[in-house]
């Protein structure tokens, strides 16, 4: 029996991982496999995904719309060979991925026969302005590929702001269903087929467009814990140049416990994580910036001042 695919797309920091996490934590007995593609050598998102009974497959150090095409197809083939196979496969793209290219790959007849693409969800940060939607070609492409647009972080915007964003989304893609997704909650009825025997209709895809490198990822790791006050100062210095940052680290203040760091839209958050794993650096942070804006040397210089002297 074919295994439907749910594709979750969205811009850097939109909240894709939160949506996937909520979905897996409320699977209601469904066997769901998750494929997570992070743009960078350290796949932070895969470590933040929890609750998948069939496990999480990590694809890192590239984008599945271009350099990791072969890895994605091999990964899907491996998932389908599991015993028992998953009932659904969720693919979370990186924030720089153009879903049109991924959809094109999933239309391959061999993949379609065994794992047809059922639904495309685009997660959009509700603080995004109508001007940004209009001016950002990648975000527009992510929206136009979607069947469902999930507005994340709706608690940060008033009713008028949400109404303006919805109007701007409808102007770009009038047939998409737009829903609020507070804490990542998207109604399961919009994501999974009610009739399990129904076969989705193949999608039309345009000609492949030339890839344009826009972002780069720079990773920093340390075998020492970080000092929170020093980290706040360092992030304050780097934030104006960053499109996104995320990481896991131990702190001097709370040794033996991981903290989850997220920076998006100029907003930084810290949340408690799990226990540190053996053989893994005590601090791991991924920085994403426009090409040429930041250097590895600059990040290393700023971040090394955050670590504790042991």
TrEMBL record:
The UniProt keyword set, sorted, is: Chaperone, Hydrolase, Nucleotide-binding
Which transformation does this protein catalyse, written as a reaction? GTP + H2O = GDP + phosphate + H(+)
Q: Looking at the keywords, is Hydrolase present?
A: yes
Domain CobW C-terminal positions:
215-307
The GO molecular function terms of this record are: hydrolase activity; nucleotide binding
Matching entries from CDD domains are given as: CobW-like (cd03112)
Q: Does the keyword Nucleotide-binding apply?
A: yes
Q: Which GO terms describe its cellular component?
A: cytoplasm
- Report the Gene3D superfamilies cross-referenced here: CobW-like, C-terminal domain, P-loop containing nucleotide triphosphate hydrolases
Give the function comment from the record.
Zinc chaperone that directly transfers zinc cofactor to target proteins, thereby activating them. Zinc is transferred from the CXCC motif in the GTPase domain to the zinc binding site in target proteins in a process requiring GTP hydrolysis.
Please state which protein family the record places this protein in.
Belongs to the SIMIBI class G3E GTPase family. ZNG1 subfamily.
Annotated PANTHER family: COBW DOMAIN-CONTAINING PROTEIN (PTHR13748:SF62), COBW-RELATED (PTHR13748)
Q: What is this protein called?
A: GTP-binding protein
Q: What organism is this sequence from?
A: Bradyrhizobium archetypum
Give the organism's phylogenetic lineage. Bacteria, Pseudomonadati, Pseudomonadota, Alphaproteobacteria, Hyphomicrobiales
